[in-house]
Design a protein that fits this description.
Elements: H1 79-83, H2 85-90, E1 99-101, H3 102-119, H4 126-139, H5 141-147, H6 150-160, H7 165-173, E2 186-192, E3 200-205, H8 222-241, H9 246-266, H10 274-281, E4 282-284, H11 285-292, H12 297-306, E5 311-313, H13 316-325, H14 331-346, H15 352-362, H16 374-388, H17 391-402, H18 407-429, H19 435-446, E6 449-453, H20 475-494, E7 518-521, E8 526-530, H21 534-541, H22 547-564, H23 592-610, H24 623-644, H25 652-661, E9 665-667, H26 669-678, H27 684-692, H28 696-701
Parallel strand pairs: 3-5, 6-8
Antiparallel strand pairs: 1-9, 2-3, 4-5, 7-8
Helix pairs in contact: 3-4, 3-16, 3-21, 6-14, 7-12, 8-9, 9-13, 9-14, 18-19, 18-22, 18-24, 21-22, 22-24, 22-25, 23-24
């Protein structure tokens, strides 16, 4: 991934929301910015005594207050601070995230565009009308407040009415009664088989757990207690508003934790060896039948539309264990589990009181901040669309409105084609690689699946019945309709035994094109360049950005994702995305000597980053944690510089400034420390300064000399490619 993602629901320390990308001065010789920083003198030499990048002339310009109007900062000494000084000084931190960035600016822009779709009177087809009806339900807080949490009630009453295991089986198999797909084993996605990448498989997963990780149910820690207190508060809050007694709530929570503890202690898929993944986790319908025992998995799946699916990937030990819990004795506990997870599936879809309570509990937000900030609106809207099952609909309409003509898509396609050709040249010129390794690398490059802006299909929500409030509708029922459509599509494609990694399915919500992100998937050898990411360029420069500005933001990002196929991890996967062949033999297309040389180069890169201590008195950067993202950043720059050689009158100054602008950010010292500790991406100002100082074109453009903070001698540069 190119950068930090905004995941307000932080179910893991990173991610997702899908965010997390949360995101001082360096070493000796820096004055406090408040006293007026001046880096115009070259007397400091090439580096300070620690050998820290920047030689003591860089400040952590990501941190608010480190750059001030009176600071005289030369581009030659601290490019990140100098090039982005205008943005830094005008930035206003979002009160919830305590951050300002081009990423947040782009997110706000995409949100505005999504709202514009809802008010566009020229968009009148069935998809557009369904989306407008959904937005009306979502945005009408008066009506949502009138209903309170009542829309949740019928789903819980239905679960309470189950009186036997056979009725429980019927419930799990019903799309009408169980639209959110709750159960003890969930059909999550359709993907490629590990052993045969051109064959499909239905991936079955254990349900998510209220306390987060499996380890929380095995070893109790402070984090476990905190997660339990939050879950107890959430479930107690909703059930209390529905009239449940304290004893009833306590019994439901106990039953849920009992089932979840069973799930956690019987889930082993993360510990499978390669042989198990290939020969035991991957199963035919007959294999599933033999494993399921008294747990009616196939009956449930077939009732939900998966009859005809013959390939399944599953935690076979967990599936075999389900017979022991799926009994009349445990019926009430399983019902409690279903009630808790019904609430979890709908907790953001009710009234304003509950919504803001959930945001405050699940979102990393500044202490003391109340309500919803402008920055949160876009993040939360997309999250709500995902919960409701309508991201494919949003993607379809976004492309229809903002990418109807092919100009933007054509530009991305043409630039990507140029980058692939440039990358081939780069591989040819690497003198540390043998000819055989070069041939294999170029074969992988030419077989990379390029998914650019538009998926290969459009979403069809014509069968969704979205009722207005006047018609007795509500957002929870609309979400039920959306989730039914998603699962019906998943069931349909599961019946196709073949998998085509060159196809981009718009219904795959993990690859939503309105996301402000780009991704490389090692298991597919494929890149995804999202339409949402182009909003980064629009947010920075408007819709009339120059070619150089496009190249600096979008072009380097495409090159970044291509390079992930050739970083320390990506090089362990072949042109099909396999790590092991059909005989379960590890694949390594790099010669042993070449692998050793690449590891040496990557270690040198990691070592250089590890010299940096952005915040005095705090820990240094862990170069090993961020090396693959740094390799990708540098590969992205280098590939664009190769393309630029063939562009007449290419403006390198404008290009380098645009590259810097995409990482413009202001945040708090605490957020910056969190990034150092937990993010696999380098700090934004390092992504500018360290990456750019590796290239002659940058050094020459700004006439950088030994003694300047941005100078790095050729023998000390740390590029891998």
């Amino acid at each position: 991934m190119i950068g930090k993602k905004w995941n307000v629901f932080r179910k893991t320390t990173s991610i997702l929301l899908l965010v997390s990308l949360a995101l001082m001065s360096s070493g000796c010789g820096n004055k406090n910015s408040a006293s007026g920083l001046d880096t115009s003198s070259q007397e400091a030499g090439i580096s300070d005594s620690s050998g820290e990048p920047g030689g003591g002339k860089w400040v952590d310009s990501d941190v608010s207050g480190m750059v001030n109007p009176e600071d005289n900062i030369r581009l030659q000494d601290d490019f990140a601070a100098a090039a982005n000084k205008d943005y830094i000084l005008s930035a206003s931190l979002d009160p919830a995230y305590e951050e300002a960035s081009i990423v947040l600016d782009a997110d706000k822009l995409v949100y505005e565009r999504c709202m514009a779709i809802a008010s566009d009177e020229t968009m009148t087809d069935d998809n557009a009308l369904k989306y407008k009806a959904l937005v009306d339900l979502h945005s009408d807080w008066d009506e949502r407040n009138k209903l309170g949490v009542k829309p949740l009630e019928k789903y819980i009453i239905d679960i309470q009415s189950i009186s036997s295991i056979s009725e429980l089986t019927e419930y799990q198999g019903s799309l009408d009664r169980n639209p959110f797909g709750l159960g003890l084993l969930i059909p999550e996605s359709v993907g490629a088989q590990l052993q045969f990448p051109d064959k499909s498989t239905l991936n079955l997963v254990a349900p998510s757990l209220s306390l987060g990780s499996v380890s929380s149910y095995v070893e109790y820690t402070a984090n476990t207690l905190s997660a339990k207190e939050r879950c107890d508060e959430v479930i107690g809050y909703f059930l209390g508003r529905l009239g449940f007694s304290e004893k009833e709530i306590d019994d439901i929570l106990k039953g849920n934790y009992k089932v979840e503890t069973f799930i956690a202690r019987n889930s082993n898929i993360d510990y499978f060896n390669v042989s198990e993944m290939f020969t035991k986790a991957q199963n035919s319908r007959e294999g599933i039948s033999a494993l399921q025992g008294d747990y009616p998995l196939l009956q449930i799946l077939d009732s939900r539309g998966y009859l005809g699916c013959d390939n399944f990937y599953v935690d076979y030990t967990y599936l075999s264990s389900l017979s022991s819990i799926y009994t009349e004795k445990n019926l009430e506990d399983i019902k409690s589990f279903l009630i808790v997870h019904t609430i979890d599936s709908t907790k953001y879809l009710l009234d304003r009181e509950s919504y803001e309570k959930m945001v405050s509990l699940y979102t990393k937000s500044a202490k003391g901040h109340e309500g919803l900030s402008d920055g949160q609106l876009g993040v939360l809207f997309r999250n709500d669309m995902k919960i409701c099952g309508y991201l494919p609909l949003l993607d379809t309409l976004y492309l229809e409105k903002y990418f109807k003509d092919s100009e933007k898509t054509d530009q991305v396609e043409e630039f990507t084609d140029a980058l692939i050709k440039a990358y081939s040249q780069i591989l040819d010129e690497e003198d540390w690689m043998s000819d055989d390794t070069k041939t294999a690398a170029k074969e992988k490059l030419q077989n990379m699946a390029l998914h650019l802006i538009k998926p290969d299909n459009v979403a069809d929500y014509s069968s969704a019945e979205i009722k207005s409030y006047n018609e007795g509708g509500n957002l929870v029922d609309a979400a039920a309709e959306g989730m039914r459509i998603l699962e019906a599509h998943r069931a349909d494609i599961s019946k196709n035994p073949n998998f085509d990694r060159f196809k981009w399915d718009i219904y795959d919500e993990s690859r939503t094109t309105t996301e402000i992100n780009c991704v490389y998937y090692t298991g597919e050898n494929g890149i995804y360049i999202m339409a949402g990411y182009l909003a980064m360029c629009d947010a920075a420069y408007g819709e009339d950005a120059t070619l150089e500005q496009f190249a600096g933001i979008v072009g380097t990002t495409i090159g970044h994702e291509i390079t992930h196929g050739f970083d320390s991890n990506g090089t362990k996967f072949d042109l099909y995305g396999r790590q092991f062949d059909e005989n379960i033999t590890a694949i390594d297309w790099m010669a042993v000597e070449d692998r050793s040389k690449m590891d040496e180069k990557a270690s040198k890169l990691a070592g250089y980053f590890s010299l940096a201590r952005p915040i005095p008195g705090q820990q240094k950067v862990n170069g090993n944690n961020i090396k693959d993202e740094a390799i990708a950043d540098m590969g992205g720059i280098k590939s664009v510089l190769y393309v630029a050689r063939n562009i007449p009158d290419f403006d390198y100054d404008e290009f380098f400034r645009a590259f810097a602008r995409q990482y413009a950010q202001q945040t708090t010292k605490e957020n910056e420390l969190d990034t150092i500790r937990g993010d696999v991406h380098p700090l934004p100002f390092h992504r500018i300064n360290i990456m750019l100082q590796q290239y002659d074109e940058f050094i020459e453009t700004y006439d950088i000399k030994p003694g300047d903070g941005m100078y790095l001698s050729p023998e000390n540069r740390v590029t891998v490619w």
